Amino acid sequence: MEFFKRLFGQAGRGGVSPETPETGSHLDPVRDPNLVKVFDSYGREFFLTKEKWRDDVLQDSLEWAADDPDQLYGNLVIAVQDGFASDVVDHVEQLFRIDADRIRSTCLLAIVYIQTGRLENAKQVLTEHIRVHGDNGTVLTNLAKVYSHCGDDEKSLSTLWRGLEADPNQENGVE
Hints:
Number of helices: 9
Strand order of the largest sheet: 1-3-2
Number of strands: 3
CATH superfamily of the largest domain: Tetratricopeptide repeat domain
Largest sheet: 3 strands, antiparallel
Order of helices and strands: HEEEHHHHHHHH
Distance between the termini: 45 Å
Radius of gyration: 20 Å
CATH class of the largest domain: Mainly Alpha
Number of domains: 2
CATH architecture of the largest domain: Alpha Horseshoe
Helix content: 55-70%
């Protein structure tokens, strides 16, 4: 057992094991909100502090994928889910400029704007998409979220309803 502790417990390059002082003794690192699960080149799982991941991994991975919309989108979604929306605004704006999938880049940009408190920017991006491309359930649902964050519940509800009429099967709208 000691062999496995030495092999997997010391992740190296800033990684932490469940018993290190950074996470508290004997905490489950999967549940620690200050850690991010990563995998090394051999597929071994280990954990980095969010700061270490942001500083040493995130920006490099985004720069590497800057010209590949699919890869960039995947990296950005993970970053946003991990709570790094404010760190990736420029990269999401880059995706918006280069992505042929206008719905996904529009929605991701709007979500990042919402999470960073830029509600007017989110509203503008979404309404412009609707003006140019017509109604889309996902875009309308995100616009409804903007209205909700702005406190306009009536407009939020009517926009959400439009989104559900455009696409009644979207999970996001049903939730």
